């Protein structure tokens, strides 16, 4: 075991022994100690030595020193721990099933241990002597891990099994800084499906798998501290790590009695990173007799999974060959694999874990989405051709290295016998020329390529000439394979962090010889592909995420095929499924409020008084009705289900429905079909009755949000927070749409004011039921995308290309404030949520299975209702505004889910909730319309569904069918919403990059910065917050004067670094403006 990975597990045990030996000698010479112990003891004895240097030295020793079992005195259980952490499914040795202490491991490799010289007896215990030594050798460890250069990157390999930290970098596919917007988006969208609550939350007693590189261990969750979890591992050690990236779990693995026994000896609060190592050594250790039941249970589970693997090893090792397609990707689950390969239709948890570990051990054949894998268990099976490509390029790189070595060290005869030159030679030569060509136009930085350098002739260049890309050197088929390999490494990030494939890309880039002084990592690989003309200088790598399966990028053959067939549709010849059932809304005013640049209008609303009452009103929400003309089995319907929703990126859009069909048939306009959701409400906003009607609207009025503010609340509009507008690359043309210049009549203004009042009443009512209003910044990013779409194409594999112009980017952000600002346009959100609640209530009353959005409370946290009623009011200001930190704490007490069983949605203050307002762009809404229309047709035939069990044969989907579809809907919605947020962030950071490094627009020297989180950031030595004038999440370096930054502080900061590849902005503190305390 000469590698670091091989000796990670016993590191803590060895270190404890070294401390014991050191103190047992009472300061005497270390000459008689074992070399490993002696070196460490000398390091520890050095007063004033820098702690980081000592830790680095210890790690270096751990990497280079071979642990000889002849010099260790570990008992039976310790040897079991070593073996458990090193085990993989390629070995044949078995773990002992006994976890009893006191036995000695016997075998031919264990020799007699040399005695340690006797030392004077001491009356102090070891722990007391260690504490005394610490007092005699005080050290300031408060900033040991706060230096920016110690910040891990997402691809760094870290030891998190023996030493875990909130500073660990995110895994592939996970974003480092989603910010509070992520929590609120999840709150609205829902993140999982109708599953056992045990599968939604991790809770004490659950078994989980923890990974660090190739090392794997099992652990039991003991307790949770906000963003961190505490575990007890099968090595008998406790550790603390962030509550993310748990990809396998078994609920209720041990009883709470076992957990409570462990908790008596574990820290009862989160341990800070700077003292965590000492706490693990000095203060908290579970006695072996107490931890034995938990360890024994985990080892038994491990052995059962190992037994399953050995029984089916020949099949499991061939899983990729047996399950993959030659050219297309596929999706499977661990249960499907167990059924297909093992013939087990009802696999046990150890069987599922054996399959899970086998697929994860495959270096490249299987990929998974780290964000949802624990719940879904889904794996993406890469095609055979893709795996062959990776293996072929790896072999070429090996040949290239051998030929380079032979060419420099062998004689002429040996060099003459070298086989044909590797294709890498020609690719490297071309790459050098292309990099030089790129640097004549653009300046590279470690994070990406800068904007085009303006030459003296640019002012005389016609815009039509500048708006072209220049093609350069062509790539051979073999060179295209190398490029595709590099894309998998640094664009789609398809290689696991611990994979040996991670080393091949850096070898290739170093061979080019153009990146001296750069860290050769995936970020530099992305820069390399930009400089050789494969990727555009501003490329948004989110679109290449294979888990998203967006059409046009080769990640999903099914999506590509259906997109081609669906989006070619120019006209729709289909029968109206609701023909004869539609109501003509006649002259009733229908108000559609959307931005001037909106391409598809999918909702509008109207209001009317209830005859015979003075304080009751019908609010009708009219929704575009494509479901009456598109069937689930049609090509358009199939593609909508595969894509799940229209994906809006600033530079391009992936429409769920054909744009030509939507514009010509469904986008709201006079004479267009609708499905109308009506709620009768009183002045207090309470829903008294609900109706759903198929209809046709005639009198449609289009209004922009700005015009609505002018009409309804001009004074409030003037009080809106200031807005920052930044533009680079030119002037953004203003958006426009026909029909927006119509003046509103007095009657229309009266109805809009009535709707505003009813919407506010609804909002107040929902706040009493659990809704909280958090003022989260939502900046807008616009990228000019001309009709030829020449800026945004797939990577150029056949021929390098260089762009002579950069896209225009416009960024708009209202200044961040801690209090909710009055805005009459919120009435649109209030009315849309009223429609969703009315739909949920109507379907629930009829027992119609639907994708209900609801919330469930965390079983081991504070009751959300109690927090809402007794905690938040104490923290709110005089106007009732809740602090951002407290609001996010409340959100974390609940989890939004999608279920076929109706339940309240507390975070939205809704008794029932079904999304129905966007069927043009969300498949879940389209599916809900199909289901509702089938129920309407059934009732139209004279049947009543009220309070009766509905016959599933009369509905579009049975509950069983919905339960089968909802898992994908829930995970896709969450995944694509995250992608849209990250795409907006990508372009915002592209703009800041061009402003900060190329001075394309003026930025202030300093900014005001609000701290909203200290522990959520996954990066060492930073706190997270908003820049007030930009409304963007950034990370402030918590070192120097910023090391005591607290949530709620206001700081003056300056930008330190902008990284487009990681979508990260670092700022450094200048001074504290206002302390939260």
Automatic annotation (TrEMBL):
What's one Pfam family the UniProt record gives for this protein? WHD_CYT4
Recorded GO terms, molecular function? 3'-5'-RNA exonuclease activity; RNA binding
Which intervals hold domain RNB?
Answer: 582-938
Q: Name one GO biological process term.
A: mRNA catabolic process
Q: Which InterPro entries match?
A: NA-bd_OB-fold, OB_CYT4_C, RNase_II/R, RNR_Ribonuclease, SH3_CYT4, WH_CYT4
Q: Which domain of life is it from?
A: Eukaryota
Q: Which GO terms describe its cellular component?
A: P-body
In this chain, the stretch annotated as Disordered covers 90-121, 163-187
The molecule here is called: RNB-domain-containing protein
């Amino acid at each position: 075991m000469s590698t670091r990975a091989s000796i990670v597990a016993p590191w803590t045990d060895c270190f404890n022994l070294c401390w014991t030996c050191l103190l047992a000698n009472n300061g005497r010479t270390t000459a008689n100690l074992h070399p490993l112990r002696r070196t460490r003891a000398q390091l520890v004895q050095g007063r004033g030595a820098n702690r980081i240097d000592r830790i680095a030295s210890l790690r270096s020793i751990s990497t280079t020193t071979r642990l000889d079992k002849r010099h260790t005195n570990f008992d039976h259980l310790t040897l079991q721990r070593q073996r458990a952490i090193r085990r993989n499914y390629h070995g044949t040795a078995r773990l002992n099933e006994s976890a009893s202490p006191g036995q000695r491991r016997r075998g031919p490799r264990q020799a007699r241990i040399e005695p340690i010289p006797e030392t004077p007896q001491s009356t102090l215990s070891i722990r007391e002597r260690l504490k005394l030594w610490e007092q005699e050798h005080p050290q300031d460890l408060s900033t040991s891990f706060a230096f920016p250069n110690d910040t891990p990157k997402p691809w760094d390999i870290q030891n998190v099994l023996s030493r875990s930290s909130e500073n660990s970098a995110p895994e592939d596919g996970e974003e480092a800084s989603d910010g509070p917007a992520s929590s609120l988006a999840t709150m609205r969208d829902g993140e999982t499906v109708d599953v056992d609550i045990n599968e939604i939350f991790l809770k004490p007693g659950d078994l989980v798998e923890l990974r660090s590189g190739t090392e794997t261990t099992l652990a039991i969750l003991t307790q949770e501290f906000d963003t961190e979890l505490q575990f007890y591992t099968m090595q008998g050690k406790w550790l603390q790590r962030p509550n993310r990236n748990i990809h396998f779990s078994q609920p209720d693995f041990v009883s709470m009695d076992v957990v409570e026994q462990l908790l008596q000896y574990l820290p009862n609060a989160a341990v800070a990173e700077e003292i965590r190592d000492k706490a693990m050594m000095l203060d908290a250790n579970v006695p072996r007799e107490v931890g034995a039941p938990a360890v024994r249970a985990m080892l038994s589970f491990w052995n059962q999974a190992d037994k399953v693997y050995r029984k089916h090893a020949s099949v499991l090792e061939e899983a990729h060959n047996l399950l993959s397609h030659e050219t297309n990707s596929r999706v499977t689950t661990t249960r499907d694999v167990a059924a297909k390969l093992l013939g087990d239709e009802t696999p046990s948890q150890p069987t599922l874990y054996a399959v899970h570990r086998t697929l994860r051990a495959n270096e490249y054949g299987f990929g998974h989405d780290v964000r949802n894998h624990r719940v879904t268990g889904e794996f993406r099976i890469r095609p055979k051709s893709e795996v062959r490509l990776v293996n072929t390029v790896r072999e070429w790189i090996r040949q290239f290295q051998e030929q380079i070595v032979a060419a420099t060290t062998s004689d002429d005869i040996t060099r003459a016998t070298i086989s044909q030159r590797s294709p890498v030679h020609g690719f490297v030569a071309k790459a050098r020329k292309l990099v030089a060509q790129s640097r004549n136009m653009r300046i590279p930085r470690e994070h990406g390529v800068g904007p085009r350098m303006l030459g003296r002739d640019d002012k005389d260049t016609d815009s039509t000439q500048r708006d072209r890309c220049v093609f350069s050197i062509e790539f051979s088929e073999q060179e295209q394979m190398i490029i595709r390999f590099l894309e998998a490494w640094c664009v789609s990030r398809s290689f696991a962090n611990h994979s040996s494939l991670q080393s091949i890309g850096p070898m290739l880039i170093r061979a080019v010889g153009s990146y001296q002084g750069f860290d050769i990592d995936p970020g530099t690989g992305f820069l390399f592909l930009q400089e050789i003309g494969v990727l555009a200088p501003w490329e948004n790598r989110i679109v290449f995420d294979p888990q998203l399966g967006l059409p046009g990028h080769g990640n999903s053959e099914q999506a590509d095929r259906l997109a081609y067939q669906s989006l070619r549709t120019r006209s729709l010849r289909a029968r109206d499924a609701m023909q004869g059932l539609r109501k003509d809304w006649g002259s009733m005013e229908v108000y559609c409020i959307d931005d001037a640049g909106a391409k598809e209008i999918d909702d509008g609303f109207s209001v009317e008084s209830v005859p015979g009452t003075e304080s009751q009103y019908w609010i009708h929400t009219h929704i575009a009705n494509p479901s009456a003309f598109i069937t689930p089995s049609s090509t358009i319907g199939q593609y909508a289900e595969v894509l799940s929703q229209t994906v809006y990126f600033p530079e391009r859009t992936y429409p769920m429905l054909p744009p030509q069909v939507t514009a010509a048939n469904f986008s709201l306009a006079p004479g267009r079909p609708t499905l109308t959701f009506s709620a009768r409400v009183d002045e207090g906003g309470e829903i008294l009755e609900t109706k759903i009607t198929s209809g046709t609207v005639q009198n449609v009025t289009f209004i922009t949000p700005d015009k609505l503010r002018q009409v309804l609340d001009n004074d409030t509009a003037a009080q809106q927070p200031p807005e920052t507008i930044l533009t680079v690359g030119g002037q953004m043309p203003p958006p426009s749409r026909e029909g927006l210049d119509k003046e509103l009549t007095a009657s229309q203004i009266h109805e809009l004011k009535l709707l505003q009042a009813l919407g506010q009443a609804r909002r107040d009512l929902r706040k009493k039921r659990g809704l909280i209003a958090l003022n989260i910044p939502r900046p807008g990013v616009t990228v000019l995308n001309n009709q030829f779409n020449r800026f945004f194409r797939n990577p150029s594999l056949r021929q390098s290309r260089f762009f002579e112009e950069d896209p225009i980017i416009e960024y708009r952000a209202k200044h961040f404030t801690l209090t909710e600002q009055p805005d009459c346009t919120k009435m649109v959100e209030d009315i849309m949520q009223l429609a969703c609640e009315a739909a949920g209530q109507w379907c629930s009353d009829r027992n119609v299975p639907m994708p209900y959005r609801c919330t469930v409370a965390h079983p081991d946290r504070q009751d959300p209702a109690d927090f809402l009623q007794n905690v938040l009011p104490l923290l709110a200001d005089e106007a009732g505004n809740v602090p951002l930190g407290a609001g996010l704490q409340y959100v974390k007490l609940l989890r939004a889910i999608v279920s076929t069983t109706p339940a309240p949605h507390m975070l939205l203050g809704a008794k029932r909730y079904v999304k129905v307002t966007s069927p043009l762009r969300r498949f879940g809404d389209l599916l809900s319309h199909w289901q509702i229309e089938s129920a309407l047709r059934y009732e139209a035939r004279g049947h009543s569904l009220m309070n009766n069990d509905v016959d599933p044969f009369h509905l579009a989907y049975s509950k069983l069918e919905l339960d089968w579809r909802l898992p994908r809907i829930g995970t896709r919605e969450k995944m694509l919403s995250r992608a849209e947020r990250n795409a907006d962030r990508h372009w915002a950071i592209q703009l800041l990059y061009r402003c900060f490094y190329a001075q394309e627009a003026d930025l202030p020297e300093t900014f005001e910065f609000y701290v909203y989180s200290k522990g959520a950031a996954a990066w060492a030595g930073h706190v997270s917050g908003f820049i007030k004038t930009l409304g963007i999440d950034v990370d402030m370096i918590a070192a120097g004067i910023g090391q005591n930054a607290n949530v709620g502080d206001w700081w003056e900061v300056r930008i330190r670094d902008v990284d487009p590849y990681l979508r990260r902005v670092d700022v450094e503190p200048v001074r504290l403006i206002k302390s939260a305390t």
